[in-house]
Amino acid sequence: MKALIVEDELLARLGMRSLIDWESLGITLLEDASDGAEALKKIEKEQPDLILLDLNIPEINGLELLQMIRQRNLPCKVIVVSCYEDFDTVKKAMRLGAVDYIRKFGLSKEELLSSLKNVMEMPVEVPSYLQQSAVQSSLKMRKKLQEIPEEFLSGQVLSFYMLWKYSEEITDMKIVETVACQYYQKLGRTLMSVFYEGKLLLLLKEETTQEEVEKLRKLIFQFITNRCYISITPYHLEEQDDQFFVRVANAIEVYGFYECGPKTVFMKEPLQINKTFPFDLGNYMDQLEYGIAKISETDIKNTLQKIFDEITGNPYLSVNLVKKLMIEILSRFSKKAGLLGGAIEEIEVQESYKHYQKLVNMTSFQGLQNWWMDFIPKFTGQFFTRQKKSESDIIQSALNYIEENLDKPIQLSDAARLIGVSEPYLSSFFKSSMNENFIPYVNRQKVKRAKELLADGKLVYQVSDILGYENTTYFSKVFKRVEGMTPEQYRKNLYERNGGGNG
Q1: Which CATH number applies to 440-497?
Q2: Confidence class of residue 483 from pLDDT cuts 50, 70 and 90?
Q3: Which contiguous run of DSSP H or E holds residue 234?
């Protein structure tokens, strides 16, 4: 069986490739595709049996690609691997022929293996799945709701529990499920359970107390060695739709992530989750880019702490949103390491996906912060010496760029992009190294060249054109700013010094 990963984020691709032993499953991974257009070409040429598809990809997005696969009757099965929390988007993908859905962030080995094995057992004929009912195309959630007895759906308050496992063994969660059900049965209560994305969701008709849950927690730990934690929230089962379990699971995950980490969480009311950043992230990312460019531990830590403070100082943000930001930040470090001829994998890891996996598997915001504060000094320590060695190369590259482009408009942004550093970093580093800002230096070099051309007998307008100025007036202003006289005056002085021999 041939499989194709379609994902625009490099670290995500590396993570999926390294998470399991594909060959042991009889699966040969083709070369990855980073956008929809590239993926379509590979699908038509290589004819993979299985595709792991991110929906948010450039050129041709995931939904559009699914539509094209369907229109061309290509015999491949598609598993959607996405960070989308919009269930409607996922349902659209299922209607277009996707056979399963797993979340990108927090993806475990167990979940990926389970999805692959289920899909591999399916018939090859995709059209049969396209004809299934809305119940089946909604990721099995509606079926789970239908299994809940009517007496559970009376509109009364339900208690929901999420028990995280620190093991990939499903056996532990089955034990937890059995122990919890028996525990509440002795209390004269009925407990229902649903497994959702590798976690156990428990539904209790009656309200429960924190004391009861702590007793259950201690009881569970008599039977399993892997630590877990319990989160509780009251919810009304008013809307019996596909998204209900998703909303509850996400709410409990978010609350536990920010408030408590691996211990008991007790929410008093349903949680509202913010799926967009309620603050301007752009300025912070520019500051962070600047700190990374300088390999400055202090600047990087200070900026990251500002971002952390913004996150905790605002309404609860989606865990996926925060982790996606962390992966984006990690990619900035990776890019800088690459510019210095190295890789972030040099920092205490053997496989390229480890840093990525550590971030996406974080179960608490505090743990995430601690990870970064440990990573940053290791990064700066690893690459600071290389940075110093490369700084002379950066200045020389900037000077070469200026010299080679005196006949064109020269912008700091263009120079930074070609050299491979951020604009703020080049600006600051150029000033500290040359004792002059970038543009004034460029102007001096252009005027120096202009004086040579004027001495050769060129007219003012000709010099202006040769040096890439839009008009002679602006050229004259720049010249006067540098020399204290206009190019016409400079040319006249040359003429007089040469005894009227020129011109």
Answers
A1: 1.10.10.60
A2: very high
A3: strand 228-236
